[in-house]
Amino acid sequence: MLKSQRPHIGIFGRRNVGKSSFINAITGQEISIVSEQPGTTTDPVDKVIELQEVGPVVFIDTAGIDDVGALGEKRIQATHKAIKRTDLGIILIDEHGYTDYEEGIINIFNAHKTPFFIVHNKADLKPLSDDSKIKLEQKLNVAVVEFSSKTKQNLKKILDTIKEKTPESAFQNPSLLDGLVNKGDLVLMITPIDTEAPKGRMILPQAQLLIDILNKDCIAATIKETEIALFFE
Predict the structure, then answer these.
(1) Confidence of residue 2 (pLDDT cuts 50, 70, 90)
(2) How far is residue 119's CA from residue 11's CA, in Å, rounded to a whole number?
(3) Rounded to two decimals, what is the model's pTM?
């Protein structure tokens, strides 16, 4: 199987700032548990998703950076460790604005040279004033995007910013064909179509290999296992 390297996008913020709702809103799927009870997400959770206009990514849903108590401190430490494998950070703030908690996360981002931007979530309840938004952007030298998980305000801007700020190196995939083929070679893909395959689509490893063949400037012939003899005839 062709191993894929997907961009890892870490979602960070205080408890109950709407991190899980944000992930559900921008992916259009209910992939994170949403609750009004602070601290629902206890440890970083990886969620693989095909993100519109961006491609396959891994979202890292993290615990609140303002967690409390001995257990909360361990959760915060786990959140900090998640930054080491984050290609792009998204920091969510709400009506409470920018605090020392966000400042601490940004310091870690800067130490690891991890790109990030800020999303003011729940903007439908209390939007940032233009003055506050400008001051925050100037202070941090990053974009601040107004967003509402309920109305999906500025959804396209969020997706565009993710695509723009994610390092190109995070999208690079290792090739299964390195050293095996040359330009112009005919590559035969034997591709079973069974009940495990999504209806009307190839499974991801098959699609990845087909793209890899084309990227190598080779010719792809794709058949089912039942047509092998017919092909060679």
Answers:
(1) very low
(2) 10
(3) 0.69
**57 closest CA partner among 31, 75, 79, 34:** 31
Counting every residue written for the chain, the total comes to: 233
Rounding to the nearest 10 degrees, give the CA dihedral for residues 181, 182, 185, 189: 30
Q: Is 28 helix (H, G, I), strand (E, B) or coil?
A: coil
Q: 56-72: buried (b, 16+ CB within 10 Å) or exposed (e) per residue?
A: bbbbbbbbbbbbeeeeb
Indicate left, alpha or beta for 7 from its phi (over 0: left) and psi (-120 to 50: alpha).
Answer: beta
Amino acid at 230: L
Tell me, what amino acid is at 179?
Answer: G
Per-residue pLDDT reduced to its tens digit, 185-232: 999 999 988 766 667 777 778 888 898 899 899 999 999 999 999 999
Q: Per-residue pLDDT averaged across 55-70, rounded? A: 83
As a whole number of angstroms, the distance between CA 35 and CA 126 comes to 20
CB of 97 within 8 A of CB of 118? no
Q: How far is CA 143 from CA 61, 66, 95, 126, 162, in A?
A: 21, 23, 17, 19, 11
Contact 49, 29 (CB under 8 A): yes
